[in-house]
Design goal:
The structure is a single chain. With about 270 residues, the chain is of the alpha+beta class. It is about 30% helix and about 35% strand. It contains five helices and eleven strands; from the N terminus they run H-H-H-H-E-E-E-E-E-E-E-H-E-E-E-E. The strands form two sheets. Strands 3, 4, 5, 6, 8, 9, 10 and 11 form an eight-stranded antiparallel sheet that branches. It is elongated, with a radius of gyration of 54 Å. It comes from Perilla frutescens var. hirtella. One of its GO terms (biological process) is defense response to other organism. It is a single-pass membrane protein. InterPro entries: LEA_2, NDR1-like. Keywords: Membrane, Transmembrane, Transmembrane helix.
Length: about 270
Amino acid sequence: MVPHAAADTPSPPSSTATSQTDTGQNPKRQQPPPPKNPVPPPPAATYVVRIPREQILRQPPPENAKKYEELRLRRNRRSCCCRCCCATFCLLFLLIVAAAIAAGVMYLVFQFKSPMYTVTRISVKGMNLTSAAPISPRFNVSVRAENPNGKVGIYYSKDSAVSVFYNGVSLGDGVLPDFYQPRTNVTVLRTTLTASDVVLDGAVKTALRGAQSKGRVPLVVNVEAPVKFKVGSVKTWELTAKVKCDVVLDVLNEKANIVSKDCDYSVRLW
């Protein structure tokens, strides 16, 4: 019968079974080939960190800490030097102002007058201009010092210097005696200027012999004397009295006379 035949006929496989079989038999899916011109990856992100200026100046990186400390110490030393120089200049300026004020007060209150100096006599020994040997001249010089002040005394210190020259050539050196010159006083100071083994070239000797033959030998006498002025019981700081005398002698021996002279003198505050 037909119904029995239909029952014996095998039924078709289910879709589920077919799907499982195909899945087990298919190979793995292949990857697509890489593109010929790959696209570069996007750039890394950049971050900007803002640090306050004060923190940068005050907190240097650790590797620069030593350099920063050296620079700071150098600036401190430079600043100290500048302050010291400024203080020194200010002090010097104040001293100059004080000296000017003191000089003005002395001039106005005590009617201060500068002491006066001149060379009164010069005698010469040892000026042998006929021999080629070195000479050892000796000059006996008298200096007249006048103190015209009626209220001021003058102290002369021992560190003075007196010298005599001919045409720039030194012929002798000496010092003045230290002493105190009272008010309204005139004192004549005598000193000896000497030199040893002075070698004069031929031109200088010839000029000296020619000056002697004419009776006019020009010499220059320089005097520098440290002095202090006494006003009442007060002494000033140490000043310098400077004297320059252009003196003309008739001969260079013990009987020399001063033919003419021109003395310039001053008292310097330093």
